[in-house]
Specification:
The longest helix is centred in the middle third of the chain and has 21 residues. The two termini are 37 Å apart. It is built from 16 helices and no strands. Helices cover 65% and strands 0% of the residues.
Length: 286
Amino acid sequence: MDMIHELDDLLKGYVEVSSLPMIYYKINDAINHPRTSMADIAKIISDDPGLTVRLLRLVNSAFYGFPSRIETITQALVIIGTNQLRDLALATSITSLFEGIPEDLISMDSFWRHSIACGVGAKTLATYRNETNVERFLIAGMLHDIGRLILYKREGELARELLLQSRSKKDLLFRIEYERLGFDHAVLGRRLLQLWNLPGSLVEAVAFHHNPQKAIQYPVEATLVHLADILVNALKWGSSGESYVPPLDERAWEGTGLSISILSSLIDSMDQQMDEIVHSLLKDVS
């Protein structure tokens, strides 16, 4: 069996469009239709009360820090933008996709805290670089370890062995994955996002968050997620199962054009945002 077939076998049940919240595709289709108005998009979102509450909670958090309260989805669309709100809709929905993973294998609260922190870090770095549509960096960070959730869900005992082997050998978990499986969680995550037909910027950020120099079309996304992941692992803000801090690609940091002196303010900024955004994204997750 070749690697693609092996990956697809692991992903059975997660590759159908229905496995990703349909609201994302409805919003995306509406955005891409030339006759769709902002009112149409607002109605699609507002027809889902749970999503509406989560989005308004998020846009009114310290993550954005708007001076006045945003009361409606239409107002949020005007201020934030349609593409950005679509990405936030994906972020607020993705955390409910993986249920039933044993707590003694991985704490889902810790997993999502790590993933959200990585997204916040990548978005904050993107803001320092004056990137456009910085919400895509939040999503990329949140999804970077999603391949691990597939392993935890589909191959729980094998995943447990990998975790124990990583700790006993004092080696990085993604290296143990590659040794045992012939691929790691980044490769598995990339395949899932490809099958979900998500944007190439997300696919490359997930695929190359340990090796950003390999990113061809979206090196900035891969680089900022790489840097945020290392920082979040070092700070021990949640965990996806990794016990050690992944190595830094020094060329990646140099490529950002950012000074190392921003690290203190970067961490302070992330710390100020984390509690509210975790509350916004995880409050309704069982």
